Amino acid sequence: MVINGNWNGGPVTISVKPNCLTASIETQGGTQVYSYDYAGRLWTALLESTSYRRGLDGKMVAKWQVEGGGRQRRWLLPVEARQVEDQARQCMLDLYLAIQSRSAHLDTQLPDLGIRGFERLIAFNTQASQADAARYYQVYKPVGILPPDQYFAVVLQATEGCSFNTCTFCDFYRDRPFRIKTLDEFRAHAQAVRQFLGDGLSLRRTVFLGDANALIVPMSRLLPLIEAAHEVYDVEHLGGIYAFLDGFSAQKKSPTDYRLLAERGLKRVYIGMESGNEALLKFLKKPGKPSDVIDAVRAIKDGGVAVGVILLLGAGGQAYAKVHVKDTIRALNAMHLDLDDLIYFSELIISEGMPYVQDAYQAHLQPLAQEERIAQEDEIEAGLRFSPQGGTPHISRYDIREFVY
Fold first, then answer.
1. What is the pTM of this model?
2. 349-372, pLDDT tens digit by residue?
3. Are 191 and 287 found together in one domain?
4. Which helix (H) or strand (E) holds 73?
5. Residue 61 domain-assigned (yes or no)
6. How many domains does the structure of the chain reveal?
7. What is the distance between the alpha carbons of residues 351 and 404, in angstroms, rounded to a whole number?
8. Which residues on adjacent β-strands are paired with residue 155?
């Protein structure tokens, strides 16, 4: 439901959707847009051409466009994040009071859901926000990363950490060993997540089985964990189950296994292949070979489950650039991907202390410039071939620096 009106001499639009409440307010200083879930959490904000996104842990990232079409981003300090939340809440409080006093003129009455949304966000003050963020850390180990299409998932950590944790370019799970939760532990976790999300569950679209390699869990333990998820959530209504799996481990499950998982709601498996070149994978300390990933993808798709294949741009620098492109094209074309599948290009992002940095230095690798990384993506995409019957998978960029859960 969209409600238009006028407040303080400018137009205002209130969108009351089943999953969130959004208000767009025009002022002399520009447009302000605030979106909230129905637990009262600020979800996104737009202020002075800068967009803000708050995670469930209370952290907030700011993004803005720069000349030339590029985009900048930075994570706010806690005090800055609180300022954005406070400004948004005060503006929404003032608007709600104006609606009640009829000094804000709307073309239709605010429905009960909208009233409840305003009352929840007004009650979500600084103390409530800090308590909510603290509760996140009681419910979750930090959620390292998700595929972009899963940023609104209900993350359920059936496992913690990564089962191999050797990739030199990844430091998401260095701080914790891999382990599989017991059935009772996972059920309690799933219930705790539901209680934590509260009415904010309406904003969530799928169930993502975490952490980094959850589908490595043996079928005898995995199926009961998935059944527990069904006990706590209406998985079908949410949109099914999604999960990561590395290509090396994936071949341990058969098409029959994936058919069983599909019957229980598994929709897509994401595999970080990174490259189709075996030498580059070895340099990255990625276990397995490209052929393992190809076999895994075929087994998954034969079982009726879609895949998402993730590739690194710029990995290995100039030394590996040509073979990375050539062999990645060959590997992707051998997978017989179709319109149900995804291909993500993720730019190599390195930071000080990351093992990749030391390995690249010792190997005297020359990194690729930004335009060369973009050219890699264009080259790979230009070489892909898909059948007219199966259709073309969705292909897009994946910037891990913008991940917020």
1. 0.91
2. 888 888 889 898 899 999 999 899
3. yes
4. strand 71-75
5. yes
6. 2
7. 18
8. 208
Long-range contacts of 40-48 (CB under 8 A, 24+ apart): 40/117, 40/120, 40/121, 40/122, 40/123, 40/124, 40/128, 41/121, 41/124, 41/129, 41/132, 41/200, 42/84, 42/85, 42/88, 42/89, 42/121, 42/124, 43/203, 45/84, 45/88, 47/84, 47/87
Residue 77 tokens, joined: 């300090």
Task: Name the residue range of residue 18's domain.
Answer: 2-126
Task: Answer yes or no: do 308 and 160 share one domain.
Answer: yes
Claim to verify: residue 50 and residue 178 sit in the same structural domain: no
Place of tokens 């709600």: 96
CA atoms within 13 A on the CB side of 77: 2
Same domain, 153 and 292: yes
Detail the DSSP E strand segments found in 288-382: 306-313, 342-347
**Average confidence score pLDDT of the chain:** 93
Q: Around Cβ 199, how many Cβ atoms within 10 Å? A: 14
pLDDT digits (tens, 9 = 90+) for 55-106: 999 999 999 988 777 788 999 999 999 999 999 999 999 999 999 999 999 9
The answer to whether the CB of 249 falls within 8 A of the CB of 216 is yes
* CATH code assigned at 171: 3.20.20.70
In percent, the amount of the chain with pLDDT more than 90 equals: 80
What is the rounded CA–CA span in Å between residue 359 and residue 362?
A: 5
Express each pLDDT in 156-188 by its tens digit: 999 998 887 788 888 888 778 889 999 999 999
DSSP code of residue 13: E
Instruction: Tell whether 221 is covered by a domain.
Output: yes
What is the three-state SS of 135-160?
A: HHHHHCCCCCCCCHHHCCCEEEECEE
CA 102 – CA 99 distance, rounded (Å) = 5
For 280, 284, 398, the CA distances from 315, given in Å and listed in that order, are 8, 8, 15
Can you read off the two tokens belonging to residue 159? 């496992």
* Largest CA-CA distance found in the chain, in angstroms, rounded: 69
Cα separation of 140 and 160, whole Å? Answer: 10
Distance CA 279, CA 290 (A): 10
pLDDT at 13 over 80: yes
Q: Are residues 48 and 147 in the same domain?
A: no
